[in-house]
Amino acid sequence: MLNLFVKFFEFTQSLVLTMDTYQDRPPTHRPLLTKNILVLINYGGMLYVIVFIFLLHWVASSVCLPGIFHNELQDPEFSLFYHRLFFWYLTLNAIGQWVLTIITSLKSVYSTASDLPLFNDATHEDWTKCTKCDQNVPPRARHCNICERCILKRDHHCFFTGCCIGFHNQRHFILWSFYGIIGTTIALYYLEQYLSIHYVSFLGSEFFKYFLPYALVITIIGKSSFYTFLTIFWCYLVLSTGLFCMYMFFWQFSLILNGQTSYEFVKGKKIYQTNFLDEMRSVFGPYWGIQFLIPFPWTKHDGDGITWKSHNTKFL
Prior knowledge:
Blueprint: H1 2-23, H2 32-69, H3 76-104, E1 128-130, E2 135-137, E3 142-144, E4 149-151, E5 156-158, E6 163-165, H4 170-198, H5 212-220, H6 226-258, H7 262-267, E7 269-270, H8 276-284, E8 314-315
């Protein structure tokens, strides 16, 4: 199982590197069809997030919870209300962090002449020139051909937000992934409780009925309802989305721990690492510990995304 996870991790990292390298080619070197496909994936990913969050909330609050608590002997309305209130808290935080990821991405854009000081070898010796927007840019800023801008501390382009993850929106992206993990986990628990009451128990002898191929076959031959099949299919979709959120969350935290971006990791560069607390304050601000319970989007994080404390360059 561990080898399978390691191979999956290595595959996803190679895929990220391949996509990142490919999209960074000059537009003239990429077919128009490829660019259009990337744009469609961009909007498709954003649409998926909107539809998924809406369905996740609706299924949990309007289908599963009433089906779970309708047999409660002691004040089912009381239990239903507080479970719905908690799920509203998760949903609103997830939507809020997703929107903030998109909005604050504009702060990380660093590609117009008015934003850039005059290049000076003495004061900006570690700056580089972007050949695509013909501007001098600070360390860790990289160009994105989808956004068509240079992004401060660019980590990667996220197709689920339609923007790049950089210095000013990395914390919102991580918090969005965090609430995605919590929300999908709670939703799976509700689904398990609901199906155990109205279908078969997850822990019973008929657990095999939850395997998707089997559920599809018995639905086709009429031994199970199409509604039940959709509910089981929804379980798989929620599980896969939750695992993806978990992967992104822990991947981003590993980058913070190492003081790297995704690009620096795959290139083997480790130049700007300080210590874990400084890295956390750089991403989440001074009150990083409570950001996961009560997000404060107005708190500023340390640094400006332009100047970086560096140590001796070393390679992994």
